[in-house]
Amino acid sequence: MSAVQLHVGDDGILVATMDLPGRPMNVVGDELMLGIARAVERLADPAVKGLVLTSAKADFCAGGDIDRMSKWTRPEQPFEAGNAMKAVLRQMEGQGKPVVAAINGHALGGGLEIALACHARLALDDARLKLGQPEVKLGLLPGGGGTVRLPRLVGIQAALQIMGEGADMSPQQALGLGLLAGLARDRDDLMAQAKAWIAANPKAKQPWDQPKFRFPGGDSRSPAVAQLFSVAPSVASARSWGNYPALQHIMSSVFEGGLLDFDAASQVESRYFAACAMSQQSRNLIGTLWYQLNAIKKGASRPAGLPATKVNKLGILGAGMMGAGIAYVAAKAGIEVVLLDTTQEAAERGKAYSRGLLDKAVKKGRSTVDKRDALLARITPTTDYAALQGCDLVVEAVFEDREVKAGVTRRAEAALGEGAVFASNTSTLPITGLAQASRRPNNFIGLHFFSPVDKMPLVEIIVGKATSDETLARGFDFVLQIGKTPIVVNDSRGFYTSRVFGTYVMEGIAMLAEGVHPRSIEVAALQAGMPMPPLALQDEVSLSLGLHVADQTKKDLAAEGKAYVEHPGMAVVRQLCALGRIGKKSGQGFYDYAEGDKSLWPGLTRLYPTAAQQPPQRELIARLMFAQANEAARCFQEGVLRSVADANVGSIFGWGFAPFHGGALQFIDALGASAFVARSRELAAKYGPRFEPAQVVVEQALRGGHFSDAAAKAGT
C-alpha cells in the first residue's frame, strides 16, 4: 500500500491523501516523500489542473521520522536527507500548477514544511489543531526548507520567533500571520475551498519565484532586519547561555538565507541541519523528551494487564495553594471535585484560585464565560467530610506534618467506600509511614504534585510497601487523565525529586558559606542551564520549610537509630531563619522582595564575607550538576528509581534539571562513566564525601556500561 493515495476527479484536480501504512500518524521519511514525488509526477499530465494534498489520518503530518534520525551517525546522512526532501518539494512548487495543502489536523515540523511548499494552505477552524516548527525543542532546526520559506512568507522577525520558541500556533493565529489562506468548517468545506482556490489560481507561483519578490519587512540587508540581527544573538545567548546550539544555527541559517537566492539558502539550511542533528544536545533531547517521555505516556511504568480506569469524583483535603491547583486541573479535565478545608472561608478561597485563572483566560480570549462557569460548577468547597462519599480518589494536600496528615486520613476514610484510593501529596514524608494511619494501606499511595500545579507537568507517584498494583494503576491513570506526566518511584525519604532537588539548592547555599559571592553562585546555575538559581529557588520553596524538613528527618532517623549527616548548607538556612529571613513569602530571604522586584540581600556578604580568591565558574557549575547527577545515580542504585526514563524525565519536568543534558542520568551517560567517576573524586577531595561517585557508576566505569543500556535495571 502506498503512503500517498492518488485520485483525479472529474474536475481534473488530483487529490493526494497521505496515509502512511502501519503508523498512527504521518511522519516525514523516504516512504512519505516517495508518495508525494509520485503525486508531483502526475502534475505533469496536461489533464491534471492542480493538486490538493491532505491526510486520511486525524492529523496532517506530525513531523520528521525520529526513528530514522536516531540512526544517523555521519553528518552526510542528515544533509542528504534534508536535500532529498527539499528536491521533491521544490519540484512540487515549481510545476506551474497550483498546489493546496488541506490541513485537517496537526501540521508540525516537517509536516508544516510540506504545507509551506504548497501555493496555499487551508485548515480546519479547530482550536485544538496545532501548527508549528517545534524542532528546536529537540535540538534541531527545520531541515526541509522551513528556515527558507517561513521568513519569505511571514518576515524574518516573525519566523525567528516561531522557530526559536518552537511554540504551537492555532489556525486563527496562523491565519493572522498570513500562513493560511482561509479556514474551513469541516472536511467537506476544506476540500471544497481547496478545489475552489485551484480553480481561481490556475497559474499559481510561490512569492519567492516571482521576479520582483521582496521579503516581508526586508531581507537581511535591510536596516530594520540588520538591527534585529545585531541584538538577537546576544538576546538568545542570554536566554540559553549558549547551551542550545540549535537556536544559534536557526538564526545563522535565516540570516545567511536572507542574503542568498532561494536554492542557495536551502543548501545553507542543510548544512546547519546536519550540525544540529549530530550534536550531543540533540541526541540527549531526543533520547529523553521523545523516546523516554513517550514510553512513560504509553504506560511503561504502569502495571501491565490491569484495566484502564477513570476518576469521576475527586476529594481534596486542604484548599491551600497546592490543593487549589489540583482542584483546578481536575475540574478542567471534567472531574467533579470536593474541595475540603477546616473553614468554609478557606475552602471558598481555594475555589477562588480557579476563578482567578479562568477570568484571566476569558480576558485573553483563551476561554469563554460559559466554559469558566461550567468548570467552577464542578468544584464544591466544603468543611463536611460526608461530602467525600462517592469519591473514587482522595488527595490529601495538608501541611507537611505526620500527625496532621494522619488525622485527616482517618476522618476521610470514614466517609469513603472500600474501593476508594487515598493519596498523599507529601513531598518528603515516606508513604509507608503515612499509610499506618490508613485502614486500607493497600489503597494508599503518594501523588506528589509540583507548584504551581496548573503549570508544572509532572506528578511523582510513590509506591509504599503495601501499595497494590491496582492502586498504582489507578493513580497512574488519574495522572494521565488530568494531562500530567507520571513517573513512578519506590518509597524512601524525599523519594526521588525532593531528594535530588535538595542537593542542588544545598550545594549552592554551601558555596555561600565558603565565601563564594552569591551572584557568582546564581549565575553559575543559569550558565549550567538550570531555570532558576539555587538561592532564589530556596526562597521560593521557603527556608523555614527546608528547616522543618531537616529537623523532621533528623528526628525520624534518631528514632530509627540512624545517624543524621547534615549538609554544610543547612547551617546557613538555620542562621537566616533565626534572622526571620524565611523566604519570598515573608518578603525576605536570600533576596529582598519589594513591590514585585527582588535583589540579593546585601547582608549576605556581611554574614558570609566574599573570599579573596574566587573559584572559576566552571568549578561552581560542576559542583551544582555533579551533586544532582550523583544523587540520582544513588536513587537508581538503591531502587528508589524504577527506570532510567523516570529518572531523566522526572529530573527535567520535576525541578528543571538542565534539559539539554537529557536528564540527570543521561548527564552521566553523555559524559561517560569513567570521566564522571574521575571528576567526582576530584570534587570529593576538595569538598567532601558527598561527591564520592555512586557505586553503580563506578561499576559502569569498570565494565563500560551506561544507564541507557537495555539491561540496566534500577536497584541492581
Task: Describe, in plain words, how this protein is organized in 3D.
This protein has about 725 residues and is α/β, with parallel strands linked by helices. It has 3 domains: about 5-205 and about 215-280, 2-enoyl-CoA Hydratase, Chain A, domain 1; about 315-490, Rossmann fold (3-Layer(aba) Sandwich); about 500-705, N-(1-d-carboxylethyl)-l-norvaline Dehydrogenase, domain 2 (Orthogonal Bundle), CATH 1.10.1040. The chain has 29 helices and 20 strands. The strands form 5 sheets. The protein has an 8-stranded mixed β-sheet with strand order 13-12-11-14-15-16-17-18, with helices on both faces. The chain has a 6-stranded mixed β-sheet with strand order 1-2-4-6-8-10, sandwiched between helices. It has a two-stranded parallel sheet with strand order 3-5. Helix 13 links the parallel strand 11 and strand 12. It is globular, with a radius of gyration of 28 Å.
Helices and strands in order:
Layout: E1 4-8, E2 13-18, E3 27-28, H1 30-42, E4 50-55, E5 63-64, H2 66-69, H3 76-93, E6 99-103, E7 107-108, H4 110-116, E8 120-124, E9 131-132, H5 146-154, H6 156-165, H7 171-177, E10 182-184, H8 187-200, H9 223-240, H10 245-257, H11 262-277, H12 280-297, E11 313-317, H13 321-332, E12 336-340, H14 344-363, H15 369-377, E13 379-382, E14 393-396, H16 402-413, E15 421-424, H17 431-434, E16 444-449, E17 458-463, H18 469-481, E18 485-490, H19 497-513, H20 518-528, H21 534-541, H22 543-559, H23 570-578, E19 591-594, E20 597-600, H24 604-607, H25 617-638, H26 644-655, H27 664-671, H28 673-687, H29 695-703
Parallel strand pairs: 2-4, 3-5, 4-6, 6-8, 7-9, 8-10, 11-12, 11-14, 12-13, 14-15, 15-16, 17-18
Antiparallel strand pairs: 1-2, 16-17, 19-20
